[in-house]
Amino acid sequence: RRFVAFLVQKPVLFRMLYEKPRALNPTRTDVVMMTPWLAPIVWNGTYNIDILNAQFHQRGVRIGLAMFAIKKYVVFLKNFIETAEKFFMVGHKVNYYILTDRVEEVHQYNFTLGEGRQLFTLQSPTYKRWQDICFRRMEMIRNYTRDRFINEVDYLAVADIDMQFSDDVGVESLSELFGTIHPGFYNAPRQRFTYERRPQSRAYIPYDEGDFYYAAGYFGGTTEEIYKLTNYCHNGIMADREKNIEALWHEESHLNKYFIYYKPTKLLSPEYLWDNRMGIPGFLKRRRFVAVPKNHNEIRNK
Ligand code: UD2
Prior knowledge:
Blueprint: H1 2-8, E1 41-42, H2 49-58, E2 62-69, H3 77-87, E3 93-100, H4 103-107, E4 117-123, H5 130-152, E5 155-159, E6 163-165, E7 177-181, E8 214-222, H6 223-242, H7 251-261, E9 266-268, E10 289-291, H8 296-299
Parallel strand pairs: 1-9, 2-3, 2-5, 3-4, 7-9
Antiparallel strand pairs: 5-8, 6-10, 7-8
Helix pairs in contact: 5-6, 6-7
Bound molecules: uridine-diphosphate-N-acetylgalactosamine.
């Protein structure tokens, strides 16, 4: 069907005016813009969003944003969606996928969505321990990607829900496989990364390996890549369970393991996942997606 569409589609050519790139003038000199495997690291000031929007519109790209609202975490939903409507992939086709054990409660919200944007509430099992909810996110995303997302969207982003958008998160962030540099570790030496260090765990990473510490609070890619990633992580989590071992940072530990051997094709700077408790360092020109303060004792296991 896509092939036929390609044949009948008339090529759209547009004239765009913008300042030409200059080979000897890097757009930022205070941050690293490329990994050693040549994946761009996205910072404000390093890209032209008009060019990128035109490219993604030309392809008619569909973007999914999946988030979990299990048990008490439903309280974060309203603000999350309202801020996403202002800042997330504005002007593109967006499907929100809310995975929840409280479908009725979620249905009571009446979100007004922009053109081309839809919201789906998907049933998710619940788990007693908050740690299991985090672990099982990989399995749930894998299953829904295989059964549904793969037919509905081209890219899928997976986000924590106790967050809000406060600046643009657009198509500049999309790539085959993308991960976000954790705001707590962007400048930390490897030894300080909170990787899983016990060799018995499938998430094990020795002290002399690792590029970055990635946050599980925002990652994504094409649906094919997300299937592979979540399948790998879920299998690792299940293998650990057999051995009665839980990785230090749950599914985040497995995600970090995956990203060492299947390196992301694009990295998002901490602009894409920030926590205001960390202040605002000079290099941080925008805070696009920020943590909403929460009282862990009040919200977890409730
Ligand atoms: C960190 C990670 C998170 C995950 C977690 C695992 C970041 C920014 N966050 O966040 O991605 O790896 O550690 O320990 O890197 N949830 C529910 N109901 C619950 C519990 C969790 O829906 O009862 C969902 C919800 O979408 C939440 C997410 O799971 O945003 C992660 O849980 P968290 O926010 O409590 O974990 P946190 O803040 O320690």
